[in-house]
Amino acid sequence: xxxxxxxxxxxxxxxxxxxxxxxxxxxxxxxxxxxxxxxxxxxxxxxxxxxxxxxxxxxxxxxxxxxxxxxxxxxxxxxxxxxxxxxxxxxxxxxxxxxxxxxxxxxxxxxxxxxxxxxxxxxxxxxxxxxxxxxxxxxxxxxxxxxxxxxxxxxxxxxxxxxxxxxxxxxxxxxxxxxxxxxxxxxxxxxxxxxxxxxxxxxxxxxxxxxxx
Length: 213
Ligand SMILES: [Zn+2]
What we know:
Elements: H1 2-67, H2 82-101, E1 107-109, E2 116-118, E3 123-126, H3 133-136, E4 142-145, H4 147-152, H5 157-168, H6 170-181, H7 191-210
Helix pairs in contact: 2-7, 5-6
The chain binds zinc ion.
Residues 110, 112-113, 115, 145-146, 148-149 line the site of zinc ion.
């Protein structure tokens, strides 16, 4: 009886500790979420202030123009840059790729060596340089890589090519090379399409992140 009681007591203690740990993690998650919300509000506030300052500057300029008898210029929000939006999209795609390369425990194997790390600590590598815009956005061109291969071995291109051909075959390698030589169709990849692409990628990331416990 005594033994059973002490066993129960020990079990209760473990349970209590687990509950405390769960509580702590949920609290830290809440704190992190709060920090994110505050940061978002701050970002939006800065944007609003910037817009207000630009508008005021334009108004002052207009007053001066009016005095000189010149035509008043209406304030217009700066149009989004296609290049910047494309770079933002690439950031999203590499995040998605790292999540996709991860196993069920969210660990990725380096594409060019045996290193295994949590996806958050992995780097990524564009097989064909991301300066080649036509292939920079392709999933097949991006794989997770450990920081060692990525930063200290320039992406280990020889091993990368070997692994790529093993995974996808020579035909795909040739196709990718050919595609990289072509210019990206700027009419097709306009801001609207890039934004739509980014939106879908964001949704996929959100779904993948939701699967993590
Ligand atoms: Zn590696």
